[in-house]
Write a structure and sequence with these properties.
alpha+beta, elongated, 13 helices, single chain, DUF559 domain-containing protein, 4-stranded mixed beta sheet, 3 domains, 15% strand, 12 strands
Length: 316
């Protein structure tokens, strides 16, 4: 059995590189290796992670292909959406089918650094196929992390109106906000607003009657209601867990009504919104009940459907 260079055991590689390292051609067809794409292989002991699959795709794609859309955004460390297919973009009329890879073709490459589309360009590509709620929460997360430059995004939308995803991105842009501390917080607010309930303040600093200062995820000033989203870290991090106990004790001590929303409760958005509504009623709210109609269902619709009757006018 031929000795495999250590470097080729830990990453995908091209056939030409293996041959240049001294491995005979027939060895690649043997039991030590697995074919990933045409001309691209891995050692049998290597389980391909996300970065490895991106690297393998690069080896199989024509020069000039860059990551875009959800794949590019996931490369930033955002754990949202499916990991397959991988999204790349390439200029020209290339017809190439790779397992687990979607190659977008374009007449002009989006802004990129040679390996990746810019975050702004990748977000535009992402919005082309995203549902409204997905696009809002992704955009809010990018802003919160300071990965997305709104000025550059607006320049791209204005300068390349023909590009796929531009109308969808323009539709969702006014809904983006950087005040959220997590993606689930942005998702929760989108549901509250879509239901027709009052729009709360987000992460606003609030001084309670006894002087305690807190910043609830959502704060309904008129009705004295706080809404807090608790992710898994609120249970796993003992420091956070104890801080939560103190925070809710402060709410009770000052007569502030609050709604605790967990990951599990968010699996039923309607029930969560109804819980917020009940708390508002207890605070004297006399407005409409939650409306789970057009605006609510629009959150789950693809953006392309929402903008179908709103084409970007030429010449503007």
């Amino acid at each position: 059995m031929h000795r495999v260079p250590d470097d080729l055991r830990h990453r995908p590689f091209a056939r030409a590189e293996a041959l240049a390292s001294g491995l005979p051609r027939g060895v690649l067809a043997g039991p030590q290796f697995r074919r990933v794409h045409h001309g691209v292989y891995r050692h049998r002991d290597l389980e391909l992670g996300f970065d490895d699959r991106v690297a393998a795709a690069r080896l199989a794609l024509p020069p000039g292909a860059v990551t875009t859309g959800l794949t590019r955004l996931q490369q930033l460390g955002i754990d949202r959406g499916p990991r397959a297919p991988l999204h790349f973009v390439l200029e020209g009329d290339h017809h190439l089918a790779l397992d687990g890879v979607f190659l977008h073709r374009t007449v002009k490459m989006p802004p990129h650094d040679g390996d990746h589309a810019t975050v702004e360009a990748a977000y535009v590509a992402y919005c082309a196929d995203a549902r409204a709620l997905e696009a809002v929460t992704m955009g809010c997360e990018l802003l919160r992390r300071r990965d997305l430059d709104v000025r550059l995004l607006e320049d791209l939308l204005a300068g390349e109106r023909w590009r796929r995803g531009v109308p969808e991105t323009a539709y969702v842009l006014p809904m983006l906000d950087d005040r959220y501390r997590s993606v689930p917080e942005a998702e929760l607010l989108a549901y509250v607003v879509a239901s027709g309930l009052p729009v709360p303040d987000v992460n606003r600093t609030v001084a309670l009657t006894d002087g305690t200062v807190l910043s609830p995820d959502q704060w309904f000033e008129t009705h004295g209601v706080a809404v807090e989203y608790e992710g898994s870290q609120h249970q796993e991090d003992r420091g956070q867990y104890n801080a939560d106990i103190d925070r809710y004790a402060a709410y009770r001590r000052n007569g502030v009504s609050y709604v605790q929303v967990t990951k599990e409760r968010m699996r039923s958005p309607r029930a969560t919104v109804r819980a917020v509504h009940r708390a508002l009623l207890a605070g004297g709210y006399e407005g409409q009940a939650p409306d789970f109609g057009v605006a609510w269902h629009a959150l789950q619709r693809p953006l392309r459907e929402l903008v179908r009757h709103r084409p970007v006018p030429r010449g503007e």
